[in-house]
Structure to design on (235 residues):
């Protein structure tokens, strides 16, 4: 099973400094490349589109190409098109199993994993012996005091980390939000931060500042409880 994680597309954003970047063209370039790689499964991990029209357009492109996809929201997403497709019902977080893995898709759209979701996560982790994957928009582990760590972090990441750590399981966590590539380890947790398809940020700055406009996505290969992952970039 090969899954592509796509994150932080920011389709139809209204940031004037980014107006020269064609977010829709970037999204199409990634989707076309994934088709060439025979990838059929997508994990869309938030900040997908900032307008109703943009979300409808992107989901249409995904469905037109017959990708199977799972989606969680980011802090910049317009949610109505996803609700209309029943992608966030009955709750905006869920779990699936495949290839010997139990895959958790968590909701952090409000910079927060709410208490009900935390209780659900703890209970679900205790119910399985399968390998664990977690998909969430915001990083849970600090990436080294970066600008995004200090200004725009997941507000209750210590609580999420506590529950993941207390499970005593090997956990691979996939996230976005920071517009950069990073791998951070804490005990038995490995956090994979996936780059954006819009642009990448400088790690250390007083404000959000562009590092480069290369776009990226992540490939995750699952087979019989074994995982391999890598990041690919398009100029």
């Amino acid at each position: 099973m090969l899954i592509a994680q796509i994150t932080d597309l920011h389709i139809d954003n209204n940031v004037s400094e980014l107006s020269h970047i064609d977010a829709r063209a970037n999204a199409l370039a990634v989707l076309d490349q994934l088709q060439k790689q025979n990838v059929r499964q997508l994990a869309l991990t938030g900040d997908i589109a900032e307008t109703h029209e943009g979300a409808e357009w992107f989901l249409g492109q995904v469905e037109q190409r017959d990708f199977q996809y799972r989606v969680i929201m980011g802090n910049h997403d317009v949610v109505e098109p996803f609700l209309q497709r029943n992608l966030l019902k009955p709750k905006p977080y869920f779990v699936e199993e495949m290839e010997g893995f139990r895959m958790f898709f968590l909701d952090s759209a409000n910079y927060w994993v709410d208490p009900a979701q935390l209780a659900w996560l703890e209970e679900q982790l205790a119910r399985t012996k399968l390998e664990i994957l977690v998909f969430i928009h915001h990083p849970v582990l600090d990436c080294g005091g970066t600008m995004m760590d200090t200004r725009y972090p997941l507000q209750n990441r210590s609580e999420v980390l506590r529950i993941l750590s207390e499970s005593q399981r090997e956990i691979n966590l996939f996230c976005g939000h920071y517009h950069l590539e990073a791998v951070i380890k804490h005990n038995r947790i490995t956090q994979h931060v996936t780059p954006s398809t819009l642009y990448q940020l400088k790690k250390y700055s007083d404000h959000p500042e562009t590092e480069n406009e290369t776009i990226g996505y992540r490939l995750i290969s699952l087979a019989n409880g074994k995982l391999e992952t890598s990041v690919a970039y398009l100029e």
